[in-house]
Amino acid sequence: MTEAFGKANNSNSPVPLLPADLADICALIYARSGMVFGESKRYYLERRIFDLLRDNEAASVRDYIAMLHSDRAKVERLINSFTVNETYFYREEHQLACLVGSILPDIIKAKGPGDYIRIWSMPCSTGEEPYSIAIWLLENWPLVDAYHVEIIGSDIDTAALEDAAEGIFSQRSLSRLPEKLLQRYFEPEIDLQRRIIKDLRESVTFRKANIIDNASMAALGAFDVIFCRNLLIYFDDPARSIAVSNLHDFLLPGGYICLGHTESMTRISEMFETVRFPDAIVYRRSREA
Fold this sequence. Notes:
By secondary structure, the protein is of the alpha/beta class. The protein is 42% helix and 17% strand. It has helices spanning 19-33, 42-55, 61-70, 72-82, 93-107, 128-140, 158-166, 171-174, 179-185, 198-201, 214-218, 237-249, and strands at residues 116-121, 148-155, 168-170, 193-195, 204-208, 223-227, 251-258, 272-276, 281-285. A 7-stranded mixed β-sheet has the order 5-2-1-6-7-9-8. Helix 2 runs antiparallel to helix 4 (72-82) and helix 3 (61-70) crosses helix 4.
């Protein structure tokens, strides 16, 4: 038996990862994603790493680490295993109300009919957030047809992006949506799941992007509004600083960013102005280019 699958103390559990091996894998995850893991999350890490060892038929932990350094696809799967995809439709909907009640009315002051309005959901996970934005605009913004609204959902988790594009959701994901919206924007339920209608699936573009990789973000262009909720809490200060700088770079002058309710840009960066609207606190890039 290898050290990955040997028995410890006559139990059925794999031998724990050596501290050096755990540190190597955590360093690789951090370098590629900005997510910080360590000894405090050993149990969470080990369960997923041992699954990956088996799936890759690695002879040992060191063999698996060597694979990671030579195979980008294996690194991608490793990252996918540690992303958090807990989400649902109309999550923190006060920010969606703020989008149509305050943010968009301010943005269109500098635009004309038919101009592009670009909205970015990052990380978009399995698609609930960007689809929620699309539905909310259709239901609540009378000017939605007067502009060319482009919604982009991006994530580092390629498996989640595939699910997002497929657009099939569980009852749990849909639990906050009124029945009339389920009837209007989703196909009939099959096996306790519903698929979002084709028009909505085609209204959102899903692309892979890494918030700490400026080049991958640049490929998507610049945006008027960015939803980046509950991501920065997983980063340490250096990675958070890189992420916020990248967000600033790809937010148009005068554009807005929405963070999660436990996050505050004022604790991270002085590059954004805090704006207190009736429905939500958001952050704005200076209108000066």
